[in-house]
Task: structure prediction
Amino acid sequence: MVTIAARDLGIRYGKTSILSDVNFQIHSEAFVVILGDNGAGKTSLIRTILGQTQPSTGTLTVQAQKIGYVPQFRSISADYPLSVRDFVGLGFNQPGRLWFNAQEKAAIQAAIKQVDLTDLANHRLGLSSGGQKQRAFVAQALAQEPDLLILDEPTASLDEKHSLALVKMVRRLQQERGLTVLWITHDTQWINDYADDYLWLANGDLKQGKIADLAQDVPVGHRQEVNHV
Result:
């Protein structure tokens, strides 16, 4: 089954072309990394998948009932007042309603457990470590019970140890829950062991393939960046 299909897709901002006439398919339950230099269009592609940006040409079809999204930048300072549990439940907030129903409470609790934060559920998120915050961000997305999970450079602020721990956790959840995962990353050290496929964006174009073939598939000028894959 195909979760995302692009046909002759073009994305523009004003007169600037971001992507032009690209074609790809993302199969269900695949772990896909999105690679490319800054400004190559990775986040623009994600915004289009999320429906925040409309294609300028072509079509993009997304067959996902629910999408969980972990954005790139979130500044959670030490004085942030919400607990981990309350933060994870923010996706259920509705105007004029100050409580969660039984189904929402169960989803929040399950998501917290899945990212191993049960012991810290009542802990203030602002006082949590960087790795714990990232797990809480993932839990907030998981609480919506998505079938497509999108992460935009979630390890950018983490050291190598905590980055790998987050990758392993998401891979485990992806396999246990049958999720389709799209993960934007500049860090290629782990992808050979944990990802299935890749999308490579460069110069307005997109190339798709299996992770095992990445080192030989990428454009010659970029091979040094992935020569350890």
